[in-house]
Design brief:
alpha+beta, Pnp Oxidase, Chain A, 9-stranded antiparallel sheet, 5 helices, binds flavin mononucleotide, binds 4'-deoxy-4'-aminopyridoxal-5'-phosphate
């Protein structure tokens, strides 16, 4: 791997690197997994309210391939309701340890029921019970009520598998653009944007 973060203008730039944004994403994610103290797979997910206001929160990336970027959540949460109205999203990774940012724009579609079942089954029992008990994004009068709902779920599924709630699933973001950003001294950063062209991706350097 080249060192993208060298301080001189003589070093490789983003556009000298991989021509494929998925490959470059994979390289950067691998490096982030080594250098970030926690949750290298955390990404900001921007949706929109029905009246066009931005709406932002962090989710965890749970899968990526050429079909897109997968995260899991409650489909009746605020984000889920917003996505049902408007599937256009932005994703943002910021790895402070690497002084890097990746922006992705795209469209969500639901993952298959089978894919969601598979991922749900891989989660810890307590996380599965939490998903059953949590009406994500709805008002919660006090924590005692939540605790009670978790206990009820524990009793209900004692000695059994916890089934995936119908409203708990995943979304896949199919990218329509990527932008990679690498910090350079004096704010002379290296930036490039990839957009689809024919059957490939074409890159454009951007002023920092
Ligand atoms: C590091 C981090 C990772 C998170 N990962 C997820 C996730 O994968 N899925 C999820 O539903 N919420 C996740 N959350 C919580 C969300 O940020 C958010 O509070 C929640 O999904 C409700 O968002 P909404 O009301 O906009 O739907 C995470 C929060 C943080 C800080
Ligand atoms: C509410 C919620 N749901 C889902 C997730 C996804 O991660 P995991 O499946 O590893 O719990 C997170 C991660 N923080 C979360 O906070």
């Amino acid at each position: 791997m080249g060192d993208y973060s060298q301080n001189t203008e003589n070093t490789q730039t983003l556009l000298d690197l991989k021509s494929d944004p998925f490959d470059l994403f994979t390289d950067w994610m691998e490096e982030a997994e080594v250098s970030e103290p926690s949750d290298a797979n955390a990404m900001a997910l921007a949706t929109s309210t029905p009246d066009g206001h931005p709406s932002l929160r962090v989710v965890l990336l749970k899968g990526v391939d050429r079909n897109g970027f997968v995260f899991y959540t409650n489909k009746e949460s605020r984000k889920g309701l917003e996505l049902a109205e408007n599937p256009f999203v932005s994703l943002l990774f910021h790895w402070k340890s690497l002084r890097r940012q990746i922006r992705i724009e795209g469209t969500v579609s639901p993952v298959s029921e089978q894919e969601a079942d598979l991922y749900f089954a891989s989660r810890s029992r307590m996380s599965r019970l939490g998903a059953v008990a949590s009406d994500q994004s709805r008002p919660l009068e006090n924590r005692e009520i939540f605790k009670k709902r978790i206990q009820e779920a524990e009793e209900r599924y004692e000695g059994q598998q916890v089934p995936r709630p119908a409203n708990w699933s995943g979304y896949r973001v199919k990218p329509s653009a990527f932008e990679f950003w690498q910090e350079r001294p004096y704010r002379l950063h290296d930036r490039a944007r990839w957009t689809p062209e024919a059957n490939t991706w074409s890159a454009t350097r951007l002023y920092p």
